Amino acid sequence: MRINKYVSETGFCSRRATDRLIREQRITINGEICVAGAEVEPGDLVQIDGQNLPPKEASVYLALHKPRGIVCTHAEDVKDNIADYMNYPVRIFPIGRLDKDSEGLILLTNDGSIVNRMMRAEHGHEKEYVVTVNKEVTEEFLQQMAEGVEILDTVTLPCRTYLISPDRFGIVLTQGMNRQIRRMCKALGYRVTRLRRERIMNIELSDLPLGQWRNLTDQELQDLLQLLTEKTELVR
User: Fold this and answer.
1) Which residues pair with 95 in a beta bridge?
2) Average pLDDT of the residues in 82-87
3) CB-CB contact of 8 with 19 (8 Å)
4) Nearest to 227 by CA among 93, 130, 120
5) In 3D, which of 171, 178, 175 has the Cα closest to residue 120?
6) C-alpha distances in angstroms, 159 versus 83, 144, 167, 170, 186?
7) How many Å apart are CA 83 and CA 86, to the nearest integer?
8) pLDDT of 103-129, one tens digit each?
9) How far apart (Å, rounded) are the C-alpha atoms in residues 44 and 138?
10) Which of 169, 170, 195 has its CA nearest to residue 182?
11) Which of the residues 51, 60, 95, 194 has the least number of beta carbons within 10 Å of its own beta carbon?
12) Are 76 and 54 in contact (CB under 8 A)?
């Protein structure tokens, strides 16, 4: 197994952070300074700054109902970062992002392998949102949103939309451009006043209270892994 994957799967730090430690010559394998791309074999002794790499922690898979104002980053220098908000006893990472002004479902884990699989944009994972806007939602607007909107020098992929109330609609995306829904609405003359993510693939927000989190059920995790496997096979 490559060293950056090996370290990330212990939950010690991310692959990117591991690459930085390698460049700084702070990682050794069996007493030898580690180089980029090095492989770790069973029984190898991996140390960081002369200390044994802690054993892999038990995998944690969480669903959080993120409030507005929380930033989906582990960077300690960022105010209101999600790590400080949760203060979870083991190091966990958000899978993807949900912008600061939005609320709703976000998944967190210490399992680096599932993070990498879910972050591959080509897999086209469904994410469902409920959006409140500043004026009446028309059929023409919903159709334009569904067919694709020009933002950020491209046209968004076709998606599914549905009306909920005069000023609210649902949208199911399979891509994740920066502030995509807000930009799409703005391009069509609307302003988002509230945005909540309701679902990521098979995981639903349901009645999880705002600001609270829960463990994924065994069935949810099993179904999620199955969906990831199916998506991976489709893009091969």
Assistant:
1) none
2) 94
3) no
4) 120
5) 175
6) 32, 10, 19, 11, 17
7) 5
8) 999 999 988 778 878 877 556 889 999
9) 62
10) 195
11) 51
12) no
**What's the chain's Rg over C-alpha atoms?**
20
pLDDT band at residue 55 under the 50/70/90 scheme: confident
DSSP state at residue 148: -
Please compute the mean of the pLDDT values over residues 27-49 and round it to a whole number: 92
**What residues contact residue 188 under an 8 Å CB cut-off, 6+ apart?**
141, 144, 145, 149
Which value, to the nearest 10 degrees, does the dihedral of the CA atoms of residues 20, 23, 29, 35 take?
120
DSSP, residue by residue, 38-60 = -B--TT--EEETTEEPPPPPPP-
- Domains recognised in the chain with CATH numbers: 3-52 (3.10.290.10), 61-121+203-234 (3.30.70.580), 126-200 (3.30.70.1560)
Q: Give me 223's structure tokens.
A: 């179904």
Q: How many CB atoms lie within 10 A of CB 225?
A: 12
CA distance 179 to 97: 10
Report the SS3 class of residue 106: strand
Do the strands 103-109 and 192-200 form a parallel or antiparallel pair, or are they unpaired? parallel
Evaluate whether 45 touches 85 at the Cβ level (below 8 Å): no
Whole-structure pTM value? 0.79
Cα 50 from Cα 223, distance rounded (Å): 40
Choice among 19, 44, 99, 223 that is catalytic = 99
